Amino acid sequence: MAGDDVDGTGPTQASPDGDAPTDLASDAPPRRADVPDSLLGGVLAGRYRIDRRLGSGGMGAVYAGTHLLLDRPIAVKIIKPRFGDDPGIAQRFIQEARTASGIAHAHVVEITDFGETENGTAFFVMERLEGEDLAATVTREGPLAWQRVVHIGEQIARALGAAHKHGVVHRDIKPANCFRLTRDDDPDYIKVLDFGLAKVVGASRHGDASLTQTGALLGTPGYIAPELYRGLAADHRVDIYALGALMHKLLTGELPPMRLGLDGPSELALSAVPPGLQAILRRALADDPAARYPTAQALAGDLRRLAAGTGVSIDPGSDPPAASGPLLTVTRDARGLSFTIGAPLLGALLLGLGVFAYFSLRAVSLPPTEPVGVPPDPRPLAVERPAPPPPAPAPPPVAVPLAPEPAAPPPASPDPPPVVASPEPPPADSDPSLAPPEPAPPTAKPLPPGSPAAVQKAIRRRCGETFGYDVTLQWKADAEGRLIPGSVKALVGKRTLLNDAETCAVRQLTRSELVWTPGETYTHKFKAG
Ligand SMILES: Nc1ncnc2c1ncn2[C@@H]1O[C@H](COP(=O)(O)OP(=O)(O)OP(=O)(O)O)[C@@H](O)[C@H]1O
User: Does residue 476 contact residue 440 with C-beta atoms inside 8 Å?
Assistant: First the structure.
């Protein structure tokens, strides 16, 4: 087909989740509604007629089409041309489509074909779904009833369980990637889209498909698990965290706050939600992956029991410690469901909070975790940092460009110089696991030349629209001048809980590959928006 103008437009559904996976790093111009789409009306691979554009995201555009031989509706996802600059990207895209097509689960969209256009642009063909994604649902309807969210969450958890067994980690679970349709009289039947594609985007940005590049951080802000922000080893439990965040979003319209190892346990905005569901979400959203559900199936099991209104035992998994007897009892009465939290669960919750606080206050460097009960994805996540670390640069520190723009020098800053806070002696030991519980006021040392401007520019460009207030970023460099991911803190006044905007800022800083003065603590204030 000529053109492959998938960066053109057509109707694009609004998503409250904002960004596509890693599209924060993109400098692509905004989509314009008046760009003609040369794919429309054409025939792909001799048998798929492209009828209309359904929308586009970070990876490519999706079209409604028709299988001409079978006369069946299909949907086609076509990779964006800018990814075509990478000679290997089409192959990786197809490889992911091939892997995802093997998942074969009722709640995973069925991929029926994949290939390349004449000019080398990759595509895959899916069953065409009639309905809308959950981002559109929550935008239109606002917070959903908890019973619906439990039903939706269980289906996604089952889809994830099947994918993880198949060795596929989604890496970008969010409402926009979960499609809602009506099937068998169920108006909330869910199909999960885009398995594995976030990895392809990351590979295209950060180099090799081995995905061990320093600085690569995949996912969508607000749904990214804390261990990814910290640059620690990660596994399928990043999807469990993301599903917890998705359910929180559906229940409240808001993303859960993130602590990133700071300031004690987060407060989920779930007061109107039954305690059983709160307990489930706290476990799915546990800061430490070892305290999360070990498998998506375990999470699905608890959601199923909650929905059934029978006695529910929150599966204790490996952590928090096992307790005997029902942890949570759900009973039906004339007024509906009622919940009793048993002493063991109460104890487990309190212990969980203690664990949260402990790890939060230590800004802990967690050991790599292995998935429990499912085979690990043989391909490491892009966020894993390879060992050994890069060599420490000789002082004075050199500001290297942000990851997505390797050739660009740090830009000049039109902004006022950063404000620095009061002094603190450098940490005696740069090991983040030995960091003091709550950092003392940071050092009043100058930032490396150019780097604050680079950070600030990146934040303004990629997160600026959502800001409207003063933000203070704090972070520490390790003994080799690398940023300690778990040390990054975004402050708005005295508040350290993160919303979308602050999470985006932290992400930009975390993924930057700037080199800092070894052992320094930095504070950078700016007014954004
Ligand atoms: N199989 C399908 N059938 C019908 N609509 C689909 C199908 N797959 C995707 N869509 C819709 O097409 C639109 C574009 O999908 P796309 O995956 O490109 O968007 P996105 O999820 O926002 O992007 P990304 O995940 O790449 O960031 C969305 O509205 C999505 O709901």
Answer: no
Of 457, 429, 436, residue with least CA distance to 514:
457
Query: Among the options 37, 172, 194, 500, which is catalytic?
Result: 172
Pick from 241, 245, 123, 188: which is nearest to 500 by CA?
Answer: 245
pLDDT of residue 176: 94
State the virtual CA torsion across 18, 20, 22, 25 in degrees, nearest 10: -70
- Distance (angstroms) between ligand 1 centre and the Cα of 527 equals 34
What's the predicted TM-score (pTM) here? 0.58
Cβ–ligand 1 distance for 176 under 6 Å, the answer yes
Ligand 1 near 170 CB (within 6 A): no
Angle between helices 89-101 and 197-206 (to 10 degrees): 160
Residue 270 has pLDDT above 80, yes or no: no
453 lines ligand 1 (CB under 6 A): no
Q: How far is CA 356 from CA 168, 318, 321, in A?
A: 28, 15, 14
ipTM: 0.96
d(CA 510, CA 487): 10
Determine which residue's CA is closest to atom 13 belonging to ligand 1.
55
pLDDT in tens, 392-443: 333 333 222 222 323 333 333 333 332 222 233 333 322 222 223 333 344 4
Q: Residue 56: CB within 6 Å of ligand 1?
A: yes
Q: How far is the CA of 218 from the centre of ligand 1 (A)?
A: 18
- Cα(510) to ligand 1 centroid in Å equals 28
Count of CB atoms situated within 10 Å of the CB of 71: 7
Locus of tokens 């087909």: 1
User: Is 172 tagged catalytic?
Assistant: yes
The pLDDT > 70 percentage for the chain reads 46
Known binding-site positions for ATP? 77
DSSP-assigned states of every residue in 211-224: ---TT---S-TTTS
Determine phi and psi for 131, rounding to 5 degrees.
Answer: 155, -140
Does ligand 1 have an atom closer than 6 angstroms to the CB of 509? Answer: no
What's the pLDDT tens digit per position in 314-372?
544 433 322 222 222 222 223 333 323 333 333 333 333 333 332 232 222 222 222 33
Q: Among 83, 127, 133, 190, which residue has the most ligand 1 atoms within 8 Å of its CB, making it the best to mutate?
A: 133
Angle 212-214-215 from CA coordinates, rounded to 5°: 120
Q: pLDDT band at 116, cuts 50/70/90?
A: confident
